[in-house]
Amino acid sequence: MGMESKYIWMDGELVDFGKATLHFLTPALHYGVGVFEGIRCYTTERGPAIFRLKEHTERLIDSAKILGFRELPYSAAEIADAIRQTVAANGFDECYIRPLIYLTGGGWNLTVDAGRAAVGIAVWQWDNYLGEEALERGIRANVASFTRLHPNVSMTKAKITGNYANSVLAKTESMRLGFDEAILLDPQGYVGECTGENIFVVRDGKITTPDTSAILEGITRASLITLARDAGYEVIEAPVSRDQLYIADEVFVCGTAAECIALREVDFRLIGSGKMGPVTRDLQTQFHAAIRGKHARSAEWLDYINTGAELPLPVRAAADAG
Ligand SMILES: Cc1ncc(COP(=O)(O)O)c(C=O)c1O
Fold it and tell me: At residue 41, what are phi and psi to the nearest 5 degrees?
C-alpha cells in the first residue's frame, strides 16, 4: 500500500509529505493518546466528494472530548475545511482521509492537561482494504481469542489510537491463523464488532446488528441501516450471539475502509451458501450508488470538493512552490 501524497496538513499548514515528521518524544506515540478518523473521498460525476464529512468531523471532536481534551486548536468547521483543502491540494480523485488529534508538548505525567492537542490530516490511495477478491467473494473470519474493550476499560465510542492495540492483537492473530478478519466478542460474550468494521446478520430476511452500547458508532453502519430501512428491510439492534453468526443466512461487515463486505465463513463454518447473499448484495450495491452520487441519499451524504475553486495556498506549500 503506497501511502504517499504531496502534502500532509499539520497544524494549519500543508507540509511536504517527506517533512511531515514528529519528535520521538511525542507523548501520543508512547501512551496512545490520540483520536482519529477514517474518511473516504470518492469520484463522482461532479468530481471528488467526501462521504459524510460532517458526521466524521463531529465524531472526531466527540472522540477528543471523550479522551478528555478540553481545548482543541480548531473547531469542527475548521477541521472540515482543512480536510477539503488537503484533499484538493493532493489532487486525488479518490482517497482515504486520516485526521488525527494527538497529545504533544507535555503529558508525561499521564494527563492530557499537561500537554496540548495538535492536529494532522493525511490522505492516501487505499483501495480494497480487505483484499481484491473480498468485494465479490466475501471473506473468512474467526472469533478472536481477544475480547473487545469493556466500555469502562477504554471508551468504545471514541476512535482513540490506544484502543487499536486491541484491534492489532486480534487482527494479527486471525491473519496468522489464515483468516482475513477477526470478530471480537464484547465483555458479556456477545458479538461486538470486527477490528475496523461493524457487523450485521441476516436471517429470514430480517437484519440484526449489535446495539452500540459496547462498540463504535460506525458511520457506515448508520448509513447501511438507513439504506436498508429505506428499502423496506426490517433492521433490529439487538444482542447477537456467536452461534447466531453460524446459523445466519448472511453475515456482512462494514466500515469506511472495508465498505460493505460479506463474511462467507466464520470459524470454519460456511455462512449460508458460502457466497455473498442477496441482502448483502443489495445493500452493497446501494451503498456503492450512494457513495458515487447515484442514490437518493447521496445529496445529503456527499460533500463535493470543488477542485476548480481557488483554495488559498497555505504558507509553506506556497513557499515551496515558488
Ligand atoms: C472498531 C471499529 N468498528 C467499526 C468501524 C466502522 O466505522 P465507520 O463505518 O464509521 O468507519 C471502525 C472504523 O472506523 C472501527 O475502527
Answer: -115, 130
For residues 31 and 101, what is the distance between their CA atoms, to the nearest angstrom? Answer: 14
Active site residue 171: no
Closest by CA to 248, choosing from 288, 191, 196, is: 191
Summarize pLDDT for 31-89 with one digit per residue, the tens: 999 999 999 999 999 999 999 999 999 999 999 999 999 999 999 999 999 999 999 99
Say how far apart CA 96 and CA 256 lie, in whole Å: 9
C-alpha of 5 from chain center: 20
What pTM, to 2 d.p., does this model score?
0.94
Residue 7: enclosing H or E segment and its boundaries? strand 7-10
Q: Whole-angstrom Cα distance, residue 292 to residue 45?
A: 8
User: Among candidates 63, 212, 55, 235, which has minimal Cα distance to 148?
Assistant: 212
C-alpha cell at 299: 445529496
In angstroms, the Cα distances linking 308 to 88, 181, 275 are 9, 40, 43
Q: Name the nearest CA neighbour of 41 among 121, 111, 103.
A: 121
Query: What is the chain's alpha carbon radius of gyration, rounded to the nearest angstrom?
Result: 20
> Measuring from each residue's beta carbon to the nearest atom of ligand 1, which residues come in under 6 Å?
38, 193, 196-198, 216, 218-221, 255-256
Helix, strand, coil fractions of the chain, as percent rounded to 5: 35, 25, 40
Q: How far is the CA of 259 from the centre of ligand 1 (A)?
A: 10
- Closest residue to atom 13 of ligand 1, CA basis: 196
